[in-house]
Amino acid sequence: MIEFGFGPGVCGELAGGATREWLVTDGLGGYAMGTVSGLRTRRYHGLLVVAGETPAARRVGLVSLDPAVVLPSGARVRLGAHEWSSGVVDPRGFEYLERFDLIDGLPRWRWRIGDVVIERELAMAYGRPAVAVVHRLVAGGPVRLDLSAAGTWRDAHGERRADGPTPRVEPADGGAVVEGAYRLTGPDWTPEGQWWLGVHHREEAARGLHPDEDLWCAGRFSGTLDRPGDTVSVLAWAGDLAEEPPPAAQVVAAARQRHRAVVAAAKPADAVDATLALAADAFVVRTSAGPDVVAGYPWFGAWSRDTMTSYEGLFLCTGRADEGRELLRSYAATLSEGMLANTADTGRVEYNTVDATLWFLHAVSRHVTVTGETDLGDELLPALHGVVRAHLDGTRYGIAVDPADGLITQGGTPGTALTWMDARVYGVPVTPRVGKPVEVNALWINGLAGLAELTELAGQDPDELWRLHDRAREAFGKRFPTPAGWLHDVVDAPAPAYPLGGAAHHDDDLLRPNQLLAWSLPYAPLEPDPVALRRVAAGLFTPLGPRSLAPDSPEFAPRHRGGPADRDGAYHQGTVWPWLVGPFVEAYRRAGLPTDDLLTGLVGHLGEYGLGSVSETADGSAPHAATGCPFQAWSVAELLRVRRAR
Fold first, then answer.
1. Fold identical between 4-258 and 267-644?
2. Which parts of the sequence belong to the Glycogen debranching enzyme bacterial and archaeal type N-terminal domain (predicted)?
């Protein structure tokens, strides 16, 4: 694996250290997350963030363990870091950092105070909401180490203020229980109980959200570090509070061993593949319904479109086919009227995508093709045939096969955006893409071919599926190419002067990356045209992947910044989406174009934002600073998939 390390020039300067984030997960959707410098810049940062009934229903518990070193002289040096609503950063413990490393996916800090060096490592216990934090004296001593436990208990998307109820802290063996929700244990616990007022989160301010909250300092752990090798450790956990996790050092060692096993199971070709395989592990979680996928950290839960788009990279490229098989069965059980359920972050089950089900057809086909497990195809075949019948008959939101040409159309309703470009501003879709979107129909044609092969493998007659496929493929080849050389983004879209569903239609020829799927899927409807691909690359490709809209479009948004309306308005109007590098590189390969240097920027990005991972989005204009979730499932999955396909 790539080992990420930074010295005092990055750690001790907030522009570098506070913009690089680390993530450790518990396999359930919970996590510990923060920055290289130790400064919390998001409301989502904390050492114990606990998943609820769904991965999206997270609550923030233990926020920080602020270290303070008491030297033999009696001097007290604070090593924590907080920013306050006044703009002051105090304490400034990052100025004592001489090193930060991410090794085997686990963060490690080293502070130096003269000849005293103290190291911190942390890990989560896999399969339960528990974090272990180990402090070790590396050099110098003796010293006393105090650890102030500051926390809260709130929804991860909100904040808690001192004008509300005081957190309930009850004594427990070796520490305390906070709000009856999580427990802390460590050496020499001293209750304190005071509000830290006005803790500021600079990233929330930049996102136009409320940036401040108040934290409750529940108490302090203390221990003596007499000689190098001595440790002071703290455990924090939720769930069964009576069942204490193993000792903290064992939790860290077990996490390191497990991470190495995850990488070994993926059989990586090089250090980059190994790093991506471990990054992929963070998104695969187990819920009460079985395996699932967290779309992105820190704020997303499970979304069926993201799950199925990520499927091959997360499961088939990492040696997790057995988990993938279980997941595909579980998702198949959610099909209704030919549509895959989309479990929203609100906790409601919704059926509101035009493409997630088509990605599901693709995922099943890829699973059988890669693993040879034809029995899974046989088992799911009735459900998959039901998807095709439902689309032929017509299903929700006017999604149906147009009898005139065999292509998928979506009629849409006001306020809905059914493709992956689903951003809305004040309830109005920015890119409704009503009509026949190019990638939806590429997925439809791809899905019909894949299903026909599964049907034939099961000893059944695939002729009708091939007939549907051939008709749609022929219509696609006639309808989507533009005189400019690329493909229409949507055909048969309502003309701008007409209301949704009006009689007049036009074909949208804006240069967008959705057309890449028409050249890159296993059963793509078109053979890639090198000239067209080069034109697409000239308008869309950046070091972090394709833009969502060409810069010469009047609606191009160069920056994905500002408040929610500004960000949502720019989300698919020029913002870079790294996941699209998968279809881009695949199309280039099929066209016989060189691809060796297309992934260089994304590999370099692994150490820039979410360490060891790939961000959700980036600005459309240089320097293409990362935005959105620092850790995004389909970004990691597609980079890994397309690298493994070399």
1. no
2. 20-226
